[in-house]
Specification:
Two copies of one chain form a homodimer. With 323 residues, the first copy, chain A, is α+β, with helices and mostly antiparallel strands. In chain A, 30% of the residues lie in helices and 26% in strands. Chain A contains nine helices and 13 strands. In chain A, strand 4, helix 3 (104-120) and strand 5 form a beta-alpha-beta unit. The model of chain A is unreliable at 1-9 and 313-323 (pLDDT under 50). Chains A and B meet through helix 1, strand 3, strand 4, helix 3 and strand 5 of A and helix 1, strand 3, strand 4, helix 3 and strand 5 of B.
Chain lengths: 323, 323
């Protein structure tokens, strides 16, 4: 998914089709369908996490994007996936597709952005390949990480009654955050170490879309309290200055590439969690935005009552007048 | 490197530049510069092998290539890299870049080719991503494997006096072999288990180019006996029917994508190796093509004497009249 263009692949359907009968072997704990693949290669205490992700010119960034930020974003996306499993990153390989005419200084800048973030998260870059890509730059990153077997968090563990939390503020990331977000690795590890997190995902497709992945994987539904959804300043600003922009709540629900964490825990732990979080991450917002239900589907509750949130996009969604 | 177009990236120089100061950590046994990265993640007996490789439309295959063969080739290339370290493959992730208009049946066929080879080598496909790639299809594969710590074979171990061997027959792979070669995993594991192989590489850039990688990494030189270089039927045929084709020996030295193994072992083991190989792989050619020297550089010896093989390509190489 991306924030620059409509999804022309019906990606989810296609992946469903392709992954019906993939070769497997006894090392595979989790194959397709979670933030990372999970492998048991014989480490006594840890699983291996394995993930690839690509960013493409004209889709995830433009020709005008600073190359440092392209490198940073590409690595940040896979680091965010490792975070969403409760894991820590270890080593990455870089595939850089370059158009026929390119500046070496551009490539160096891509690596500068990438290396800075890798250094920050103690991730080694263990190889790189460059190849020609006639249509423009493409940067694909393969990342290995590890996670203690007892702390690995899947999408599929959400339980009816769970409280739903999100980190940070949502929507409007196209204003800049999609290029320089901080992957929530430290936060995710603190969560995994201190609480029994039932399910977790990172927000790349948008709150509603990614929550639906969790609901589908867990066989449950959810009710969100619209008032508690943390809407970013950027989403509010965009709605004010651009007449074609989404209303802020819709932006928070459907904009992609927030790269925050969404997770569920037993509701009785909500208060200790908020207290602990405040002490640990005083500058980082954490919001309880709803609860998991037995009834399937995604519903929004506001002062007018409860209604189904049927679609991913705003065409099928009728909002009250903008605030 | 590829066989369809001239290398416009000066890939080796660029990678040298980029890999001067990559972030590392204590898990890294081997970073950039070998067939795979080698990681010690705490397995008692094994290292983890980690590799990515991409094939691109118009570079590694054409719009007319059967999609099953594109899938097979992409996975075969990384399996060949795992083989070159003496390892065995374990799990792969697929990144498929698709042009805006594509047929789902094409994508299914790519996966069919890929899955068949993965099944053959007990490799699980643990995830796949599709993304838009405006310029054409791009298929990047990330592969994990394992290798016993005591059997891991690098490029850097060649010693003066070693005999140089290659499997199979070389040159002319564009006639078809580049799409349906068999990665030499079984052969490499047999070699690693029965002989102390000093250095190994898979032939993707061409015999001369890849041997030079070994020589550079090992700080040695080599002398090849031109008569013993196994020239493929296809290279000979191309030279006969196409006036612009390379002479067969030059094709064997410089054509890319043979995906055979080149390795060096102590010369006293050459005869037992050839005997053992014949018993184990009776239908598979193995040729001793030269020896490692203390003197740097790559030299060819024929009935006229010894001369330097200076370039990668035939521009700087004067051959005797075609046979």
């Amino acid at each position: 998914m991306n924030i620059f263009s409509a999804v022309c692949l019906k990606e989810f359907d296609l992946i469903q089709l392709l992954t019906r009968s993939l070769p497997s072997n006894p090392n595979v704990i989790t194959g397709p369908g979670d933030d990372c693949a999970v492998l048991d290669l014989g480490l006594p205490d840890d699983y291996i996490l394995f993930k690839t992700d690509a960013v493409v010119e004209g889709v995830h960034f433009t020709g005008a994007t600073a190359p440092e930020k392209i490198g940073r974003k590409a690595l940040g996306r896979v680091l965010s996936d490792i975070a969403a499993m409760g894991g820590k990153p270890c080593a990455a390989l870089i595939t850089l597709g370059l158009p026929p005419h390119y500046e070496v200084s551009t490539v160096e800048a891509v690596y500068r952005g990438l290396n800075a973030l890798a250094t920050e998260w103690k991730t080694s870059i263990v190889g790189g390949e460059t190849t020609t890509n006639p249509g423009g730059m493409l940067l694909s990153i393969a990342l290995l990480g590890t996670v203690p077997k007892t702390k690995c968090i899947h999408r599929s563990g959400a339980k009816p009654g769970d409280a739903i939390f999100v980190t940070g503020q949502l929507g409007g990331s196209i204003a800049g955050k999609h290029l320089d977000f901080e992957p929530r690795i430290a936060e995710a590890q603190w969560l995994a170490n201190h609480f029994e997190v039932h399910a977790m995902i990172d927000l790349s497709d948008g709150l509603a879309g990614d929550l639906k992945h969790v609901l589908r994987a867990s066989g449950v539904g959810a009710e969100l309290f619209t008032k508690t959804i943390p809407i970013s300043r950027e989403a509010k600003l965009q709605a004010k200055v651009e007449s074609s922009a989404k209303p802020p709540l819709l932006a928070a629900l459907t904009d992609g590439e927030d790269f925050e964490l969404l997770f569920t825990i037993a509701s009785r732990l909500a208060v200790p969690l908020l207290d602990g979080w405040k002490a640990q991450f005083p500058d980082q917002k954490l919001s309880c935005i709803g609860r998991i239900t037995e009834t399937p589907g995604l519903r929004l509750r506001d002062h007018n009552g409860v209604r189904e949130f049927s679609g991913m996009g705003y065409e099928h969604f009728s909002l009250p007048a903008r605030s």
